[in-house]
Amino acid sequence: MANTEKIPFWRDSRVLNILGQIVVLIIVIIIIAILGNNLVNNFRRLGFSFGFNFISRPASFAIGNPPIDFQPTDSYFRAILVGLINSIKVMFFGIIIATIIGITIGIGRLSDNWLVRQIATIYVETLRNTPLLLQLFLWYFAVFLKLPKIDTPLVVGGNIFLTNRGMDIPWFVGGLTTWLGWIFILVALILSVVFWRKHISIVEKTGNSGQIWLNLIAVNAIASILVFCFVIDWSFPKLEENSITGGVNLSPEFATILIGLSVYTAAFIAEVVRAGIQSVNKGQWEAARALGLKPGLVMQLVIFPQALRVMIPPLTSEFLNLAKNSSLAIAIGYNDIYALSNTISNQTGRSVEMLLIVMGIYLTINLIISLIMNWFNRSVQLKER
User: In this predicted model, what pLDDT tens digit does every residue of 35-49 receive, in sequence order?
Assistant: First the structure.
């Protein structure tokens, strides 16, 4: 007869593990409470008060090029919101641009073309081994502030104007048809991802190409391009009497932090992509070529999907670094969350409270990025049976 004697809880490893975690959590909470209590007591001893009620007071300062309406009579809370939106703009578009450039340069590092390979190598080694702050100063003082004046702008592609006041680019005009067009493009993008996963599933299970799903992706792409060009209402910048009207203006500060941060982070992403591709066994390349696949399809269907499993964890770190490095915008006068919090703390003397607010905001943003990338990482991992 099997021994059914119950293990005492003080010898049960599962119970001991849970108790150990509870003890550690209690110790952490006690330490935080002690530090917080000391902070409040020190503030009181110095005659200061600790609290966040100041954020409802009028800010009494102006913000250049705010993304939402802001007046000096608005509260500090609204000023913090303006800085948050400015920071998110840099992080969101920076991650997209850096990823596109990084993947392109990373693949270029492995190109059979000697010139392409050397250009990609010089890009990576130059940008990766010089300080980001120095690069930002170079973009700001040597590029954007040296552009022509507004009466003689530098025109690129007929619709992009470059001046010392920034970049004026085409932008969509909000309206019912425009928003319906964006919704259509978003739905088409989601469906394309679903169709691509169906295609990959068929290829893995049957070895067939799953051409119907590729055709549906092509239809989605063509429809999205048509909607993007003909349904969405665009406003194009125009030069009229020494002023540029229409489109949207990107200030020199925003353009500097966006481009400088993107091209800098792209150098690190390129190395992640290169290492991920080289981690794929050479037998995969040989097998794909033996099946008659063209080099582009080999990379698209065989190599890159496998390399993603290696690339995503370090890519997450690079995205987090980009989000945190955006705080260097204060060096060129861009009104992000860190720059505005510095102004608020100087006015109110609430430096500790503002530091806690900024730390909480950056922590929240980085945790969101980590959650999204962890979900993506799980979705591309091999599913064990």
Answer: 888 877 887 787 777
What pTM does this model have?
0.83
CA distances from 150 to 132, 171, 192, 242, 316 (A): 29, 19, 42, 6, 40
**Is residue 266 within 8 Å of 102, Cβ to Cβ?**
yes
Give 3-state DSSP helix, strand, coil % of the chain, rounded to 5: 70, 5, 25
Query: pLDDT (tens digit, 9 = 90+) per residue, 130-178?
Result: 999 999 999 999 988 888 888 888 888 778 888 888 888 888 887 888 8
Paired tokens of 203: 């290829």
Q: Span 337-345, mean pLDDT?
A: 92
Domains and CATH numbers, the chain: 76-151+250-380 (1.10.3720.10)
Residue 244, both tokens: 């540029």
> Which of 342, 339, 282, 332 is closest to 306 using CA atoms?
282
Handedness of CA 48, 49, 50, 54 (dihedral sign): negative
In one-letter notation, the amino acid at residue 104 is T
Residue 333's SS3 state is coil
Q: Which of 293, 270, 298, 281 is nearest to 116 (CA)?
A: 270
The pLDDT of residue 1 is 46
CB 200 within 8 A of CB 305: yes
Q: Are 164 and 149 within 8 A, CB to CB? A: yes
Q: Render 26-68 in DSSP notation, one character per residue.
A: HHHHHHHHHHHHHHHHHHHHTT----SGGGGSB--S--SS-SS
Which residue matches tokens 């088409």? 188
